Amino acid sequence: MNKKLFKLILILFLPIKFCFAQTGHPILIDTAKKFSISKHGYFYEDKNLNLSIDSLINYKAANKLIPLTPGKVFSKGYTESYYWIAFDVENTLDQAVHLMFKEHSSGINQLQLYKLDHLGKIYPFGLTGDHFPFKQRPYRNRSFIYPIILMAHEKATFFLWADKRGQNLYMPMSIGRDVDIVQAEIPLHTLFGFYTGVFVFAMIFNLLLFVSVKDNIHLYYAIYIFCMLIFILEEEGLAFQWVYPNFPGLQDYMRLIMASLSCGLLIQVMQLFVDQNESNSRMFRFTNYYKRFCWSMAIIPVLMRFKSFIILEKIVFYINNFLALLTVIVIIICVVERIKAGYKLGWYYFIATVMLLFGVFNYIFNTLGITNFNLLKPNGLVVGLTAEIIFLSFALTQRYNFLKKEKEILLEEKSKHQVDLADGIFNAQEDERTRLARDLHDDLGGTLSIIKLNITAFQHKVLQLTAGEQVFYDRTIGMIEKACFDLREISHNLMPKNFEQSGLIETLKEHFITLNQSGKIKFDFVFQVDQPMESTMEITIYRIINELINNIIRHSCASKATIQILSFNERINIMAEDNGIGFNPDRDKKGLGIQNILSRVKYLNGKIQIDSNQNGTTTTIDIPIK
Question: How far apart are CA 441 and CA 482, in angstroms?
Fold first, then answer.
């Protein structure tokens, strides 16, 4: 009889012992909207991966569980263990309450919640996690939510089993009324909608710029933004919910792939932005090898999708976190190097990278379990990335202004160099013309004159020549005279006599007098030049007019021509008209005469217009006065 009574008492009181042996103080459910788990909960690390719910109930009864840190997110960094969370609740109200337990991280491999009532009965709430199809979740949400009903004054203990092996364990948890838990998702979705909108806008903006300006930096940056957008959506469980709900486990590998690609792309964008190359950076070779290594690391998670083991997952986990930190540090070092070299535009990239640095450090430290808080909402990484994208997009527009100014300076220097080169060529030509004219006049002209004198010295013997010999003699004298005349003409064309002393107008007046005395074409010369010109401009205008005259004489078949030169405040106008047969300017522009005129007009930054038909030709030239 006594033995039976003892067993009955043991059966009645054993569940109560199990349920409340390590309670501390339970979560008291009252009219509040949310309740803290960290102040009331406990955890246990299952390193051997073999504990059951019954084992945890016994451990709790034996006070073997470790209290959670009040006010802190449960975070253990990289883990190869299972973890159990336990907390007691008590409904203090006279009515049933509808609650929801929420695990916020949205990245748990496997998760299961158990309820132990005051009678010692265990109720499993269903196995879920991102290694199961999305539709298998107790509540269809990006995070893991378990609906809970507590009857009036009910007491219970909840045990949560979590598997996140091969990844970082970061588990924000909360319990509250179902309506308030659901409503709390609305501002968070709105916030992520805003950040996603910023990312999408920046991505489209850069793609349009790439199509427009064909600058590869915009294509690389658009791909980088896309990768980071997928990474953030993966972190929040939204990509699994929206894109591939029937491919469980994929998001673990997608995060690693996107992270590795992003590191390499960010290095590539930096190189293009600060114009890093082998000639101006000692870090160039390292960054080239480094970005290729980052891209190659994206292949490993693809292979892990088909076959993986815990050691490989651990190595990849730490390498990817290390790459994220190292990438930002490498970028800052490279940018500072270019800034020291005088590349002022690098300051924009430096500021953008520093913004990203705080977010990356906050995320990595949380991932490694060093810290368990977010500097900003929804998390430091999202805010840091958004700030970097906004500022760097602005910096890209400043980059174009910088490159535009730099291009204008280069074009100005090139134009000045071309002008100096053209000046040198024309000056050299004029110097050579002057030397050649002087040599022809002084040397060859003198020689021809002496030959003529020597021959004419024999005039007293001409009477003794035969008729044929006398004709030959007269013809020779005529050829010598013609040679002297041609020599004077060539010398005059090369460099008009006393041009420097007489100037453009006086030289042309004398030239037209000579033409009208000996030529078949009647030339009228009209001029009004009230201001002095540079010597280079004067001689070039003389060459243009002389070429116009030669073209009229040789090709126009005209009987009358007018040459006009007028000066205004900012330009000089030259007009040549004749009543000849005309020509086709488009067809005959390849002629040497026209080419000489065009090249000289271009040298003076002038404009030329030719109007020609069967009634004659009019050539109008406008030359700006510097």
Answer: 14
Q: Which of 377, 397, 352, 393 is nearest to 198 (CA)?
A: 393
Distances (CA, A) of 226 to 208, 253, 296, 426: 14, 16, 18, 58
- Give me the residue label for tokens 């009889």: 1
Nearest to 542 by CA among 586, 578, 577, 498: 498
Tell me the average pLDDT of the chain: 84
Question: Which helix H or strand E contains 102, and what residues bound it?
Answer: strand 97-103
Calpha distance 223→483 (Å, rounded)? 79
Whether the per-residue pLDDT at 433 is higher than 80: the answer is no
User: Which pLDDT belongs to residue 14?
Assistant: 41
Query: What domains can you pick out in the chain, each with its CATH number?
Result: 2-183 (2.60.40.2380), 192-415 (1.20.1070), 505-626 (3.30.565.10)
Report which of 189, 180, 224 is spatially closest to residue 203, judged by C-alpha positions. 224
DSSP secondary structure letter of residue 444: I
Q: Phi first, then psi: what are they for 310, rounded to 5°?
A: -65, -35
What residues are paired with 145 via a beta bridge? 102
Q: Among candidates 89, 103, 113, which has minimal Cα distance to 35?
A: 89
Q: What local confidence, expressed as pLDDT, does residue 449 receive?
A: 65
Give the bridge partners for 620, in sequence order.
575, 609
Q: What angle do CA 528, 529, 532 make, to 5 degrees?
A: 170
Position of tokens 């730490």? 318
pLDDT in tens, 518-573: 778 899 999 998 878 888 888 888 888 888 988 888 888 899 999 999 988 888 99
Q: Between helices 310-340 and 346-367, what is the axis angle to 10°? A: 160
Q: Which single residue is written with the structure tokens 């970028």?
A: 331
Residues 6+ apart with CB under 8 A from 172: 73, 74, 103, 104, 105
Tokens 């006070």 locate to 63
DSSP state of 136: G
Whether pLDDT at 5 is above 60: no
- Other C-beta atoms within 10 Å of 415: how many? 10
CA dist 547 → 524, 568, 601 (Å): 16, 23, 12
pLDDT at res. 525: 92
Q: How far apart are CA 38 and CA 67, in angstroms?
A: 8
The segment with the largest mean pLDDT, out of 94-103, 238-247, 504-513, is 94-103
In tens, the pLDDT along 13-30 reads 444 433 444 555 899 999
One-letter amino acid of 512: F
